[in-house]
């Protein structure tokens, strides 16, 4: 039995904001470089405007290609938040694992919540893990029931305690 989940940033409002941000440097390039009219009260240099556009499109590309992948199988839990983080934790290295509803801390990679580092693309439900070495983190999920069942199965097999899913979900 294997659990797999792949999540991306799919919120329409997030993409609307990012696309609106892309319009600004494009309009600036159109006005300033193509038509020769200064863009704004204190215009950037042409090269500055181009660099700003490259930065914005780089940010949009990064958001487009980022994905949170989770896999749970008999050997442990694999998680990647490409292109930044990759974790492979065996069951013997896990002290506790539970499905939690956490306070909203934003999307992406967030440090310093009460559960440690949070990796998420949407929502406020995830798998909270504490390793034997004391590392704590949360992997966001949209399939909490399925994930809870497989965590329970493998913790029972390996004699690790299972913390029950929060009933307030």
Distinctive features:
PH-domain like, 4-stranded antiparallel beta sheet, 34% helix
Describe this entry's structure for a reader.
With 169 residues, the chain is of the alpha+beta class. It folds into two domains: 8-65; 69-157, PH-domain like. The chain is 34% helix and 33% strand. The strands form two sheets. Strands 5-8-9-7-6 form a five-stranded mixed beta sheet, with helices on one face. Helix 1 runs antiparallel to helix 2 (46-65). It is elongated, with a radius of gyration of 21 Å. It starts with a strand and ends in a 12-residue tail after the last helix.
Count of DSSP E strands?
9
The largest pleated sheet is described as: 5 strands, mixed
- Structural class comes to alpha+beta
Number of domains: 2
CA-CA gap between termini: 25 Å
Shape: elongated
CATH topology of the largest domain: PH-domain like
User: Percent helix among the residues?
Assistant: 25-40%
Mean pLDDT score: 86
Report the CATH architecture of the largest domain: Roll
Report a brief summary of the structure.
Helix content is 34%, strand content 33%.
Task: Give the SSE map.
Blueprint: E1 3-7, H1 12-34, H2 46-65, E2 67-73, E3 76-82, E4 85-90, E5 94-101, E6 108-113, E7 116-120, E8 125-131, E9 136-140, H3 144-157
Helix pairs in contact: 1-2
